[in-house]
């Protein structure tokens, strides 16, 4: 199966949208707090069923897949022709969007993982020896912010893909002109 720029963009965009959707749903389904149940020298926290942890992990997974696909497709040889990475990185716009996509993806992963892992820990460690515990959950809003950053990261990968395609076409045009010039010079 030959991958084209359009297919690559569709894959990166779809994975980014899935990450965004799962992150937003995880944020919306997260309970505000658990119910403290006092015991003998302990407080046991009872939380309602919470799908935010698996949804958060799904969001992170799709973000990582989107970022991996975006990175991979940037340097993929299209139509059997590959371009040296140095050619791509000569473009200032490509270099900037590539680095912004990497940074945004890393920040999105951090903002998705932090509340997901925190929520997971709250749900698994329910017994507290501090009698004033109010049964907290992960910080509100961070998952949603990570979801939006995940969508942003996939959009930056898409822009980087477009810029890489432009640089690739320019490179092959120059190679073709040089080949024609050499053929005319030899004749």
From TrEMBL:
Residues passing through the membrane, by range: 55-75, 87-114, 142-164
Domain of life: Eukaryota
Keyword Transmembrane recorded: yes
The keyword Lipid biosynthesis appears for this protein: no
Membrane topology: Multi-pass membrane protein
Keywords: Membrane, Signal, Transmembrane, Transmembrane helix
Compartment(s) of residence: Endomembrane system
Family designation: Belongs to the DESIGUAL family.
Protein name per its UniProtKB record: Uncharacterized protein
């Amino acid at each position: 199966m030959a991958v084209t720029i359009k297919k690559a963009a569709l894959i990166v965009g779809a994975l980014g949208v899935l990450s965004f959707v799962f992150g937003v749903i995880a944020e919306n389904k997260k309970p505000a707090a658990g119910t403290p149940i006092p015991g003998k020298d302990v407080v046991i926290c009872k939380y309602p069923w919470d799908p935010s942890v698996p949804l958060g992990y799904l969001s992170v997974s799709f973000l990582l897949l989107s970022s991996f696909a975006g990175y991979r497709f940037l340097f993929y040889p299209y139509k059997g022709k590959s371009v040296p990475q140095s050619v791509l990185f000569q473009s200032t716009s490509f270099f900037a969007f590539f680095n912004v996509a990497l940074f945004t993806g890393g920040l999105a992963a951090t903002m998705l993982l932090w509340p997901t892992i925190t929520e997971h820990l709250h749900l698994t460690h329910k017994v507290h020896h501090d009698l004033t515990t109010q049964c907290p959950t992960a910080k509100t809003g961070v998952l949603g912010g990570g979801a939006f950053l995940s969508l942003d990261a996939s959009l930056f990968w898409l822009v980087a893909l477009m810029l890489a395609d432009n640089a690739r076409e320019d490179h092959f045009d120059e190679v073709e002109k040089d080949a024609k010039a050499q053929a005319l010079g030899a004749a």
